[in-house]
Amino acid sequence: MKKENKKFFESEEEFLAFDFKSKAKIIDDHMVEVVAPDGEVFFVMAQIGIYISEETRHYQLHLVEWIFDKNFSDDKEKMTDNIWRDLLLNGVTFKGMSSGDRQGQRTRIGKKIRQIREEKGIEAKDIAKLANIDAANLSRIEQGKYSVGLDILSRIAFVLGCQIDIVPNQM
User: Fold this and answer.
1) Are 25 and 70 found together in one domain?
2) Structural domain tally of the chain?
3) Exposed/middle/buried for 119, CB within 10 Å: 0-12, 13-18, 19+?
4) I need a surface site. Which of 63, 92, 95, 141 has the fewest CB within 10 A?
């Protein structure tokens, strides 16, 4: 076990017995699914499934869970950057990682906010001021780079003269 792990755990047995909030499982020889503490699903292209030893697979999956818990954040861009770094530093052989399953929704919603704002001819700084949010955060929301809560989303929608609704996915 790397020195960094030992700051939190006295032994490898204690580390392996710990129940992390993130949950990792092998999908196939080259893919691991990780469910982060907030329920967002990430895929890590890692060859954990090729290990013959069940003990090695278990240790590697637990290491991935620890890394996801350690770096969990609402700022998904920063979180995923830190996860990449820690996977490398802790010896997890991986080739890539998805941005999470909610990134598409953030991007879609952000584009829609920008589209409505531009159609109404309103500057982003004015929307931010009326919605009582930071203009930089509104920019990140419009770019799909910021996970926004329902309260802020409701304030933005109200300022734009819109409402939030739950609608079926378009197939």
Assistant:
1) yes
2) 2
3) exposed
4) 95
Q: pLDDT for 58-67, tens place per residue?
A: 999 999 999 9
Is 166 part of any domain?
no
Q: Is residue 131 in some structural domain?
A: yes
101 versus 53: which is more confidently predicted?
Answer: 53
d(CA 36, CA 136): 26
* Amino acid letter for position 63: L
Q: What is the pLDDT of residues 4-36, one digit of tens each?
A: 544 578 888 899 999 999 999 999 999 999 999
Note the pLDDT of residue 130. 96
End-to-end CA, the chain: 47
In a domain, 7, yes or no: yes
Question: Per-residue pLDDT tens for 69-114?
Answer: 999 987 777 888 899 999 999 988 889 998 787 776 788 899 999 9
56 lies in a domain?
A: yes
Domain termination residue (choose one: 97, 116, 147): 97
* Distance separating alpha carbons of residues 91 and 47, to the nearest angstrom: 12
One domain for residues 74 and 121: no
Distance from C-alpha of 78 to C-alpha of 127, rounded to nearest angstrom: 26
